[in-house]
Amino acid sequence: xxxxxxxxxxxxxxxxxxxxxxxxxxxxxxxxxxxxxxxxxxxxxxxxxxxxxxxxxxxxxxxxxxxxxxxxxxxxxxxxxxxxxxxxxxxxxxxxxxxxxxxxxxxxxxxxxxxxxxxxxxxxxxx
Length: 127
Prior knowledge:
Family: Belongs to the yippee family.
Helix content: under 10%
Largest sheet: 6 strands, antiparallel
Structural class: mainly beta
Strand order of the largest sheet: 3-4-8-7-6-5
CATH superfamily: Peptide methionine sulfoxide reductase
CATH architecture: Beta Complex
GO molecular function: metal ion binding
Protein name: Protein yippee-like
Keywords: Metal-binding, Zinc
Domain Yippee: 12-109
Number of domains: 1
């Protein structure tokens, strides 16, 4: 494994809730109306300091998509997913964009988004 280079963002940022590694800027939010297992999720034009997992086909509420989970490069925790391919024409705008789950990141004001049922939960809840 090589040396880890981390991009530090300036402005209002979202960061990993575990290690505080910068992930995205507020100005790169495309939509705040996404949802996942843990509640709210935001779609971003650009995210940084993530590694991309294996591509897989997933049936989502808006149809079939080819996606890959994204992981924080600082601590390795999963923080969301990226859209590789949208199979529905109306969903093509998502391609190349990434979703960060609010449950897994800290907001620009340093706040965390907690879901009542998952407080005190373990990483096994993500499986």
